[in-house]
Design brief:
This protein has about 130 residues and is mainly beta. About 5% of the residues lie in helices and about 40% in strands. The longest helix is centred in the first third of the chain and has 5 residues.
Length: about 130
């Protein structure tokens, strides 16, 4: 009668439930455009969170469009919502991910996404945040 995460995680001491929530309606995320991506930060008004969720429109079409690897502390989960992407990582050969495919990786490892579709691809990412308490 328990779910999978409970089976895989050791029990933690009971903590006080804070009951926090932060709704982001479609198109109302905080926009953060870059030359290669158009990020929409989700649940951006909630402070001191452990995860950073964002939706990204992948505009880049070639790895050479990046001046350096993207890297940040923590871990990242990514799922392709629309299109096809090519994920470049510092220590592995490029990987093609199609709609519905997902990957979990160490985001301190250099990485970059390019759209392998005729149109811009869209991905949803959730990154851990090491400085949240």
């Amino acid at each position: 009668g328990i779910d999978l995460p409970q089976l895989l995680s050791p029990p933690k001491p009971q903590s006080r439930t804070l009951g926090r929530r932060d709704l982001t309606r479609v198109g109302e995320g905080q926009q953060h455009p870059t030359p290669t991506y158009e990020h929409e930060l989700l649940s951006w008004q909630l402070a001191q969170k452990r995860m950073i969720p964002f939706k990204t429109i992948v505009r880049a079409r070639r790895f050479e469009e990046f001046s350096e690897w993207v890297r940040h502390d923590g871990e990242e989960f990514l799922i392709v919502l629309e299109g096809i992407i090519r994920l470049y990582t510092e220590f592995y050969e490029p990987l093609v991910l199609e709609q519905g495919d997902s990957i979990y990786f160490d985001s301190d490892m250099g990485h970059a996404l390019v759209s392998a579709s005729d149109h811009d691809a869209i991905v949803l990412s959730v990154c851990t945040r090491s400085d949240a308490s």
